[in-house]
Amino acid sequence: MQVTVNGKTMELPEPTTVRQLIEKLDLGKAACAAEVNRRLVPHKEHPARLLRPGDVVEVVSLVGGG
């Protein structure tokens, strides 16, 4: 299925959850926030929230520095 992730089209297998997408982006160990179709997906829902063809996903992670 095709979804848009941070402005870029991605091909993902069905089914794919928000958590699986985050892991595919190599952000599995980072603190991440995810929006699907402009709605925030709470962190505890990432493993269960399935993506659908055409979804628009924004994933942001926190970056520390000094």
Report the average pLDDT across residues: 95
Strand order of the largest sheet: 2-1-5-3-4
Order of helices and strands: EEHEEE
When the domains are counted, the total is 1
CATH topology: Ubiquitin-like (UB roll)
State the separation between the terminal residues, measured CA to CA.
Answer: 40 Å
Number of helices: 1
Percent helix, as a range, is: 10-25%
Bulk shape: globular
Query: Structural class, from helix and strand content?
Result: mainly beta
CATH class: Alpha Beta
Largest sheet: 5 strands, mixed
Strand proportion: 25-35%
At CATH level 2, the architecture is Roll
Low-confidence stretches: none
Question: Which keywords apply here?
Answer:
single chain, mainly beta, Ubiquitin-like (UB roll), five-stranded mixed sheet, 1 helix
Helices and strands in order:
Blueprint: E1 2-5, E2 8-11, H1 18-24, E3 32-36, E4 39-41, E5 56-61
What does this entry show, briefly?
By secondary structure, the protein is mainly β. The chain has one helix spanning about 20-25; strands at about 1-5, 10, 30-35, 40, 55-60. The radius of gyration is 11 Å and the shape is globular.
